Amino acid sequence: ETLMLLWSLIVSVYCMGGMIGCLCSGYLTAKFGKKKCLLCNNVLMIVAASIMGCSKISQSFEMILIGRFMCGFSAGLCVPLHHQYVGEISPRKLRGFANSTSSFFWSLGKAIGQISGQRELLGSQTLWPMLMASCGVPALVQLVALPFFPESPPYLLMHKGDQEGCKKAIRQLWGEGQHQAEIDDIMKEKATMKNTKILSVLELVKEPAFRWQLYTIVILTATLQLCGINAV
């Protein structure tokens, strides 16, 4: 019973960390910017992977719990942040395609994880720490590559008011050319946001205008947990 309890905690603490990470994502993004948050998030994931990878040597299941929580927090922070950053740095004609690649790579990552976790591969008694630490590999790749990318142009213009920085980022991302139309669109969005109140989670739940949309999302998410995908 004790082992079952510990195993359940190790599995579920990832989701708890993910929930907290999602709730913090909006505040951290607005305060520090999307690129900085992604860079710090990668460092957090590498630290979590290192902790889990060293748990067997240290003979500490507590390290697995801590690493799983940190990994979940990192994933929860990254999910909305990654979508926003990829969408904002992509040209308008490629924005939908760029955002759709996220779902593809999430599914691909899950499939690779399931395959790698087989006992014949990394799921053996000796290699499972490497399996748990493998989540740090893509984080390390992004940590090395991301500094060569600029900050999100909409963030620079809407939150920092840096129009020249926004133009420079757009030219770096999309090449030389006339991009005034995209800048005008960002300015229109900024003007719209000034007249729009940003709701907290509690205010969103209490707002009657969004009640049916909220019901729909809750029902879809709840039934997804009952469709058997976790068992599969």
From TrEMBL:
It is a multi-pass membrane protein. GO terms for biological process: D-glucose import; dehydroascorbic acid transport. GO terms for cellular component: plasma membrane. The chain crosses the membrane at residues 6-30, 37-58. It is found in: Membrane. Keywords: Membrane, Transmembrane, Transmembrane helix. The keyword Protein biosynthesis does not apply. The keyword Transmembrane helix applies. It comes from the Eukaryota. SUPFAM superfamilies: MFS general substrate transporter (SSF103473). This is GTR5 protein.
